[in-house]
Q: What sequence folds into this?
């Protein structure tokens, strides 16, 4: 066989493999974080039938915090606050700063699901239009 037809493969040095592995790991971690920290602009509800033939609405991963005198429903998921006026769709109102690192980890959906600790902030709207939010040991 002529020398120009030989195929030779030499393994890359260990340093290159470490750099490539680190780059791929960081890229995958960044992609995972972007999915975990994404809060949709709107969360739709689905109708449910409750015991004793009562009808209601259900929204996944939302915790109802407060219902105003004008039937506005305030709810949270992680540190993101949602508001519903018609009781059917929840629209993102604002995001509360979480404070410390341990509180910030609660923004990750998988951590909330794994720990069972889904309620990270308390939201109380006041009639004057001010909204009090308690998260991460701080009053915002």
A:
């Amino acid at each position: 066989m002529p020398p120009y037809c030989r195929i030779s493969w030499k393994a890359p040095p260990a340093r290159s493999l470490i750099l490539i592995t680190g780059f791929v790991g960081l890229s995958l971690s960044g992609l995972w974080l972007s999915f975990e920290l994404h809060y949709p602009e709107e969360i739709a509800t689905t109708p449910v039938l409750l015991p004793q033939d009562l009808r209601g609405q259900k929204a996944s991963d939302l915790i109802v915090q407060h219902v105003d005198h004008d039937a506005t429903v305030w709810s949270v998921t992680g540190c993101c606050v949602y508001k519903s006026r018609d009781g059917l769709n929840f629209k993102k109102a604002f995001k509360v700063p979480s404070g410390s690192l341990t509180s910030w980890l609660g923004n990750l959906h998988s951590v909330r699901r794994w720990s069972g600790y889904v309620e990270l902030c308390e939201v109380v709207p006041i009639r004057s239009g001010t909204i009090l939010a308690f998260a991460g040991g701080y009053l915002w």
Observations:
- Helices lie at 14-36, 101-104, 109-115.
- The CA atoms of residues 121 and 135 lie 4 Å apart.
- The two ends are 77 Å apart (CA to CA).
- The chain has three helices and ten strands.
